[in-house]
Amino acid sequence: MRIDNRKVKNTVVSIYFILIVFGILLATVFKSFEFLTESTFFVFFGLFVALVLLHSIAGYFEYDSDGAKIIVLYKGLILTEYVNYREKKIEISRKDLVGFKINNYILCKSLVILHRTYNDIKVKERFNVTLVNSKKLTYVKQSLSKTIKQNRKLIEKA
Fold first, then answer.
1. pLDDT digits over 115-130, tens only?
2. Distance between CA 76 and CA 140 in Å, rounded?
3. 73: which residues sit within 8 A by CB, 6+ positions away?
4. For the segment 41-74, what is each residue's pLDDT rounded down to a tens digit?
5. Residues 117, 115: Cα–Cα separation, whole Å
6. Quick one: DSSP state of residue 96?
7. Max Cα-Cα span within the chain
8. Beta bridge partners of 101
9. Whole-prediction pTM value?
10. Which string of b and e fits 37-52 if b means at least 16 CB within 10 Å?
């Protein structure tokens, strides 16, 4: 099963563009009206916080469980063709999957995958799944739950 959120990219880029244009527009308005200079700092600070929050939430998520391995990929949406500094990719075999959890915070959601390494050390990997559709996130849950259930049956047989 392949799941991704590539349709969100255009929306996120549009929001970035609107925020930047809004900031430039506010800069010219505040420069022409001298009586609004006290609140200028707070408006630009709020705009900066919104831009940073959007940047931290916006990301491309891909989940692939078709083959013998489960592949999870997360990378940023803006400037990923030029500077790919936020990419995180794991490839784990199905038998090494131990558990998972989806944390739903106020502003973001994260997928935590617990898996074993080659020397039996358990490792937690976190992925931001805020912009993934809830229906697609349900499919990810079902796929991971099915894999964990199969792993438990294999352990009981052994």
1. 999 898 999 999 999 9
2. 20
3. 60, 61, 62, 63, 64, 87, 88, 89
4. 777 888 888 888 888 888 889 999 988 899 999 9
5. 7
6. G
7. 78
8. 112
9. 0.82
10. eeeeeebeeebeeeee
Task: Answer whether 26's CB lies under 8 Å from 44's CB.
Answer: yes
SS3 call for 8? helix
Question: 156: which 2 tokens?
Answer: 């009981």
Which residues, including other chains, have CB under 8 Å from residue 68's CB and lie 6 or more apart? 93, 94
86-101: average pLDDT: 92
Bridge partners, 103 (sequence order): 110
Helix (H) or strand (E) holding 38: helix 37-57
DSSP 65: -
Q: Which residue, among 56, 58, 59, 54, has the nearest Cα to 18 in the 3D structure? A: 54
Strand 2-4: give its sheet, edge to edge: 2-4, 59-64, 69-76, 88-93
> Taking a C-beta distance cutoff of 8 angstroms, is the pair 77, 57 a contact?
no
13-42 confidence digits (pLDDT tens): 888 889 888 888 877 777 666 655 667 777
Angstrom distance (rounded) from CA 45 to CA 129:
27
